[in-house]
């Protein structure tokens, strides 16, 4: 038995309309459009069905400016077959333009998630070839490669191809003495790789090198945090998308498979002065010179006995951070007699506190049985819900609070921060594991509805990663991502929520 190489773990889109593992993601064909809409009469689903979907145009679609371009669906209007997009496209869709959309959970699709862009284009969609290393076509650049300038070197005497990024050393060579289909060339870490096709007879007659600029493509699964993010709901919201990982090795298991997401730039530091309560506020860090300047999450690793807490930072000026107020809370309930739905405004009959329900999960009992119990994520919270108090909707009691409400975001309990507390950048998304049942995963009705039986938290590094499973040869597993979008979210162009995985 051996250990599968890095290229054997592949990531796939899922979609809620699929009926079996590996199902075909439908290729759609536009009828017309504008810079911010796509009209397609073949979209016969109900109003809002495609809200939140991620889409991309095919690499050979009719309109050249749209080839390989991604988009995010803000709204779908069934009566006019119109997708309204979150940002303007670089061209106007015309009749015959082809595209695909990915939404929700349910089953793994047949389409892999995309890797890095090369010289501005994704090689999965638009063929990427070298100028000097003739006979070479690159078909994928894995997300595990560093961004920057990648060199591809052809050693004529050895008949081998090598890659490196920046000033790194070259990794092991790929034998290209004969034609190669879907060959893998790894970097010197053995984690990053490119996939290539090679026509041996067209390779150069001497040593040659080509360079390509590697970059993170935007909007391929988690869109940038643009201003439109709060247009759907002025109080903010949470959004959920599923990735499915598969061990494509035909023989060996991935033992101790774990996953984590990248954090934004920034060296861990301390609070030098000022402090935070749960209200909007500011503090000064000791040194935040290499942190992002806006729209980021900060984690305090000192408070709550080291369990931590987090804040959404609207912007940073030098070492000064300006924090959003904590207007979210969790609330447990029991004695549920009438269903409380997502989006409902609830009120504490005794304290008068109010909030909007972002998510509600029933963990035991049923509404029909008058004994529903569970947990809520609340937003636009005004006041405190008290233990044992009636929870009302439109002056009618629906359930009873089982404990006091607790302010906090992303699973943390909000507490005050003080000078000398340790802080660090926090990843932009939370992860949760989902074991399939006969290859099927959770299937929420919308991307704004939490999947059942999935627990989320932030997993920012190899030392604090999401444990998955021993993934047998040919097996799959689900990784859900949760975006927690606050009101008045600030745009940031470099959101990197790629999922990284490692195993023994």
Overall domain count: 5
Computed Rg: 24 Å
> What are the low-pLDDT stretches, counting only 5+ consecutive residues below 50?
none
Q: State the shape.
A: globular
Looking at how many chains there are and whether they match, the oligomeric state comes to single chain
Task: Show the helix and strand layout.
Layout: E1 9-15, E2 27-29, E3 32-34, E4 37-39, E5 54-57, E6 70-77, E7 82-85, E8 98-102, E9 107-112, E10 117-118, E11 128-129, E12 136-141, E13 148-155, E14 160-165, E15 174-175, E16 180-186, E17 193-198, E18 208-215, E19 237-247, E20 258-261, E21 269-274, E22 281-285, E23 294-300, E24 309-317, E25 320-323, E26 329-336, E27 345-348, E28 354-364, E29 372-382, E30 390-393, E31 396-401, E32 406-407, E33 422-426, E34 429-434, E35 466-467, E36 476-485, E37 499-502
Antiparallel strand pairs: 1-9, 1-19, 2-8, 3-4, 4-7, 5-6, 5-8, 6-7, 10-18, 11-12, 12-17, 13-14, 13-18, 14-15, 16-17, 19-36, 20-35, 20-37, 21-22, 21-33, 22-25, 23-24, 23-33, 24-25, 26-29, 26-31, 26-32, 27-28, 27-30, 28-29, 30-31, 34-36
List keywords for this structure.
Elongation Factor Tu (Ef-tu), domain 3, 37 strands, 0% helix, 41% strand, single chain, mainly beta, 5 domains, 6-stranded antiparallel barrel, 504 residues
What features would you describe in this structure?
0% of the residues lie in helices and 41% in strands. The two termini are 12 Å apart. The protein is globular, with a radius of gyration of 24 Å. The strands form seven sheets. It has a seven-stranded antiparallel beta sheet with strand order 2-8-5-6-7-4-3, with no helix packed on it. A six-stranded antiparallel beta barrel has the order 21-22-25-24-23-33. It is an all-beta fold and 504 residues long. The chain folds into five domains: 20-103, Beta Barrel (Elongation Factor Tu (Ef-tu), domain 3); 117-215, no CATH class; 227-263 and 431-447 and 456-502, no CATH class; 269-326 and 411-426; 329-407. A hairpin with a 6-residue loop joins strand 21 and strand 22.
